[in-house]
Amino acid sequence: MSDGRPHRLSAAYPALALLFAAACGQRDSGNGAPPLWDPSAWTPAQIQQLESGRRLYAHKCAACHLTSGQGQVALGAPALRGSAVATGPVALHIGIVLNGRGNGAMPAFAGALDTRSIADIINYERNAWGNSEPRLITAQQVEAIKNR
Q1: Do the domain assignments include residue 2?
Q2: pLDDT tens digit string along 79-105?
Q3: Domain that holds residue 133
Q4: CB–CB of 75/64 below 8 Å?
Q5: Tally of structural domains, the chain
Q6: CA 133/CA 145 separation, integer angstroms
Q7: CATH number of 117's domain
Q8: Does any domain span residue 73?
Q9: pLDDT in tens, 48-68
Q10: 65 lies in a domain?
Q11: Residues 6+ away with beta carbon under 8 Å from 33
Q12: Nearest by Cα to 93 from 64, 129, 127, 59
């Protein structure tokens, strides 16, 4: 039953929406310009993989890790720019994307994305924001770790 006055919480809705958008990375203040890959360093097929990874990353990962790769530590989403995961052992990186993090902050993508998409995202993360991995991983590498 309403007495014609606005509900007490209705004034808080815009503030809550802004807070939620900021927490989910909708406002990325980093310098997240998409990387430009030197065509002489990559084959056209590799550039397609990196661009596919960029698009998938934007859709699946940037809400927490930001388009700049700087992450949101308060949400449990560490920076990927220069990180030990994105520049370290490939198997560790693949395992984290496949299985998520045990604390629940990072979801597992093994059941949500195919191995080609996971490989493309990882290749993007390993070659964006100054990270530089000249060898792209394959869907077969992701599949092998998924089946361990």
Answers
A1: no
A2: 999 999 999 999 999 999 999 987 778
A3: 8-30+40-146
A4: yes
A5: 1
A6: 19
A7: 1.10.760.10
A8: yes
A9: 999 999 999 999 999 999 999
A10: yes
A11: none
A12: 127
